[in-house]
Specification:
Strand 1 and strand 2 form a beta hairpin. This protein is an alpha+beta fold and 513 residues long. It has three domains: 188 residues, no CATH class; 105 residues, no CATH class; 148 residues, 2-Layer Sandwich (Heat Shock Protein 90). The chain has eleven helices and twelve strands. 57% of the residues lie in helices and 14% in strands.
């Protein structure tokens, strides 16, 4: 057989392509990124059903591609193996003729059907030309289909076959290839053919189109089945939940808009039930807040007039102090104290109903004089009844709003004093305010030796109208005090103590930026 080395291919076209690509890269760079951004925006605008359908189809096509490539590679190997088999039969037939030459009729049949240009064989160590090549030809590629003893593993061999199959699709037209295959049982026997690649390329295109069409049909059917299954299990319930959330947000107080669970026991059913429970709770809270808002408006109007009436009653009661009647003198202090508490309650209610407290105007001041002013305003100490101790250094300074801190301390000291007074039979009451500095914060402890805070009141201690520790109280004092402390960035908390009550205020200094 004539063996002609493959001619060197010209490189001019490839060089021109590279130059053209370099010249236009700056133009295509921005448009490529713009296309990516446009595709991303288009993807984000799509709904969940369309995203699911596109992803399902894409994943199935990827799976079909993994099947398509090995199929095309196997078809190529089978097609070449058939040509080698035909060539081997021709070689065997030629041995029956004188001189071992292929008859003209067989030669014409091989040239017409198999388009074989040349056949060579090696048998029992002897090599001969069965069908010599006519003229001079250039061989562009050589493929060896023999199973060599030192050939790489199966995966590497499959990858090589896939690479060769893809090379056929992208190879230029008019190529001539030489194919080598095993012949007979002996390991040294072989059969070689020289054929044009065009018939192989045409056959592979037909086979590839058939496989591609079948793959697309299978992908669409599979995607449709998977889409409808997932849509029924996930997409529709999630779409229903989303629509309900939007519908409920338009009017959360309407009970008819609450989610109705489907009764499923999987995760979707749990989400439906939890959403329905949350919506029911939210609707109830909103209805309660509306009722409380309306009640608060009415109370604020009543409070204004009631406070005026109580102020008049207080002025009248002050005149009763001058009445010398012993009975009047015995009851007047209690009457005045009751009126004071009533007026204080009205003021606290109005203060709590305000939109917001004024922002604290902080200043660095000595703490002990303020604590002494608080004690004096509450009538402490009371000889023989309630002692008062201010346990802190005279030089201790605190960064706070004077008025706000005075209100907080007055409330806490008054609560401690009232707790001791409510504890019948106690004659050695004591209210203690201790303070010290830790770094950039001041810690104030307010303690008393009264009966302490009941366990039932601890749960709602800082909730309006729920945390009162005494009969007839509103619980607003601690709520207001906690809000004022939080406005300073601090905390007000109840500490554990075996006897009496212990409240702690942690008030940090202003941040320095």
């Amino acid at each position: 057989m004539q063996r002609v080395l493959a001619e060197e291919k010209p490189q001019a076209a490839a060089i021109d392509d590279n130059v053209s690509e370099a010249q236009t890269s700056w133009q295509s760079g921005w448009s490529g990124s713009a296309l990516v951004r446009a595709a991303k925006k288009a993807w984000e605008r799509r709904g969940l059903p369309s995203k699911l359908l596109l992803l399902t189809a894409a994943f199935v096509l990827m799976a079909e591609a993994l099947i398509f490539l090995p199929s095309v590679a196997n078809y190529r190997v089978s097609w070449l193996a058939e040509r080698l088999t035909a060539a081997q039969l021709a070689a065997l037939a030629s041995e029956a003729f004188p001189g071992g030459e292929v008859p003209s009729a067989l030669r014409a049949d091989l040239m017409r059907t198999a388009q074989v240009r040349a056949i060579a064989s090696r048998r029992d160590g002897q090599r001969r030309l069965v069908l010599p090549v006519e003229g001079e030809i250039s061989i562009d590629a050589v493929y060896d289909l023999r199973s060599e003893p030192n050939a790489p593993g199966g995966i590497a061999m499959k990858l090589g076959q896939i690479r060769d199959a893809l090379g056929v699709f992208f190879a230029p037209d008019g190529r001539i290839i030489r194919v080598v295959g095993a012949s007979g049982s002996e390991s040294g026997d072989l059969i070689e053919i020289v054929i044009p690649e065009a018939p192989l390329k045409e056959a592979m295109f037909r086979y590839g189109l058939n496989i591609l069409g079948l793959s697309i049909i299978i992908s669409l059917l599979t995607a449709a089945v998977v889409y409808f299954a997932l849509s029924h299990l996930l997409v529709r319930p999630l779409t229903r939940i989303t629509r309900n959330m939007l519908h409920f947000s338009e009017n959360p107080e309407d009970p008819a808009r609450i989610m109705k669970a489907s009764g499923r026991i999987d995760e979707v059913g749990v989400a439906e039930r939890e959403l329905a429970s949350m919506q029911t709770e939210l609707a109830g809270l909103l209805a309660q807040k509306n009722r409380l808002a309306q009640l608060g408006l009415a109370v604020s109007k009543i409070n204004h007039d009631l406070r005026n009436m109580l102020a008049n009653a207080q002025l009248i009661s002050d005149r009763l102090v001058d009445v010398p009647d012993p009975t009047v003198q015995r009851f007047v202090p209690k009457l005045i104290a009751s009126l004071d508490r009533a007026i204080s309650f009205c003021n606290s209610s109005l203060q709590f109903g305000g939109a917001t407290e004024a922002a604290p105007r902080r200043e660095l001041m000595r703490l002990k004089p303020l604590i002494e002013d608080v004690a004096e305003s509450q009538g402490l100490p009371r000889e023989g009844q309630i002692a008062f101790v201010a346990d802190m250094e005279d030089s201790l300074r605190i960064d706070a709003d004077r008025d706000h801190l005075f209100r907080v301390m007055s409330n806490l000291v008054r609560n401690a004093m009232q707790a001791i007074e409510a504890n019948e039979g106690q004659a050695d009451g004591e209210v203690r305010v201790a303070a010290h500095r830790e770094g950039r914060k001041v810690i104030i402890d307010i303690t008393d030796n009264g009966p302490g805070v009941p366990l039932k009141a601890r749960e709602n201690l800082f909730k309006a109208f729920q945390g009162s520790t005494k009969k007839g109280g509103t619980g607003l004092g601690l709520v207001i005090a906690s809000e004022l402390v939080q406005a300073h960035g601090g905390t007000l908390s109840l500490m554990d103590r075996p006897n009496g009550a212990h409240f702690r205020i942690e008030l940090p200094d202003r941040s320095v930026h």
